[in-house]
Amino acid sequence: MSLYFERDKCYLNLHNKNFSICEKIKDSSIKNICYGSVAESEKNFSICEKMINCSKFEREICYYGVASAKKDISICDHKIVDKNLKDRCYLSIAISENDSSICDKINDESEKSKCYSKTLVAQP
Question: Can you give the residue range of the structural domain that contains 30?
């Protein structure tokens, strides 16, 4: 393993949700993990846009983390294109907010059923 890779892993472990530490990481995969972690912690989806050399899906996973942390369905609506990930985004927020109306946005019938069962059971 290269010394740079080990250094980057060290930065990742130390970043403590600090965006400036992510900037020091050279390895793009590790840097992207750092950005995703900071984006979720800071509840700031614009940090996901800093990710480099990644697939659209990887960036959408970052958006999903932020949407779940913020409990913001508008991020699911406007930033996530992948249908399965979008459904999981709605499911996560519906459960955390205990709001069965969000379940209506889910396309997959199995996920929608899961959503209703988890939110309706939790209601008093």
Answer: 1-54
